[in-house]
Write a structure and sequence with these properties.
Elements: H1 2-22, H2 25-58, H3 61-77, H4 82-97, H5 103-116, E1 121-125, E2 132-136, H6 141-144, H7 149-167, H8 182-189, H9 191-212, H10 216-232, H11 235-250, H12 256-262, H13 264-279, H14 290-297, H15 306-315, H16 319-333, H17 338-343, H18 350-372, H19 391-396, H20 401-433
Antiparallel strand pairs: 1-2
Amino acid sequence: MNNKVSNNRFLEKFAEVSSRIGNEVHFRSLRDAFAMIMPLFILAGVGVLINNVFFPFVASGETLTKLQVWGNLITNGTLNIAGLVLAPAIGYVLARNKGFQNPMAAAILAIAALIMTMPEKIALTIANSTKTATVTGGLSFDNLGTTGMFGGIIVGLLATEIFIKLTKIKHLQIHLGNGIPPMVAESFNSLIPTVLTTGLFALVGALLSVFWNTDVITLISTLIQDPLRSFNTSLPGMLFIYSIGNLLFTLGIHQTVINGTLLDPVLLINMNKNMAAYSAHEHIPYIITNTFRDTFGMIGGTGSTICLLIAVFIFSRQKASREVAGLSLAPGIFNINEPVIFGFPIVFNIPMMIPFVLQPVIGILIAYFFTAIGWMHRVVVLVPWTTPPLLSGFLATGGDWRAVIVQLIIIVEGVCFYLPFLKVSEAVMLKNSK
């Protein structure tokens, strides 16, 4: 009895600490900002898919090249400015979440600060040549795009925090009196804090350029982005963090509290790099991306609960289970599974918590194996997480039918894995109902 009470207290404390971390204003703002710009990345996935799968079926040679200009322009306006878009999105959302009256000012300041951290000189490849030239006065898609995403995150957070703190200092505010239009008044109130904040980022950029011949984006990429991605996007690291998030879901706390903060930013960088490489007909660099995780580890929703629903329909004879499964099937096809998580329930249901946490791990390992041996193409298209199973695998891998087979293997395995725990859970429910 004491052990049970101790375990319950541990779970409650674990859930409380995790919830606090996930709902911390900076982490929450990061999730909100990524959600805000996600449509751009989905559009990029559509462009890459049509450019490299559909167009080659209907055209070739010069005609194909002309058609693919459409997709290339989409890539330039989405993937290739990911960092540039992310910085103001974070600035706006963070300012709004902290109750700042003029969040748009924070967004504008964040994008200005990010540009000030860019290198003055960039190396460009001359068209139709292998030669490179160093130019000044230009911005590179390399720095504005996926390579600069972490720069956009850090600059967006820091610039906004400094700006908001400075605006609270009354001596730095300029009051023009009554009768002034509100937007003009707000602009002058934040004039000095804006000058000081952007001036600080310009100073840092200048010192790095003059004395160390580097820039903020390069430093962030080298010292923070690459080491963090090396763990979070490794197979053990990703599975560990993802499983913690799924465990939280079984305690009633949505998995995005952890995964949306610690995994999605770095996995999205990998996904964007894969899409860019696929669009440029280059080697696809990464197996593990956010779409890979969702496509093979979230079949039918978090916990791959489509496997549970199938197991219920085939093997369960309990009316309550079949009714819940029937109500959960339609949303489950689109990977929305809150009805089964809270209706079956899986939350605080010890027998069901085990496969809910472990089945995604098994599914991801199966897909990783087939990808690593080269039997299945790597994921190269960011598809919406609501894309139904089987179709999602086909689209995400650029039209590889073998991904559909892999998803079917995972589903069959998942039904077998869920089944004994379903039987135990129903036996417990039947016993408690007497």
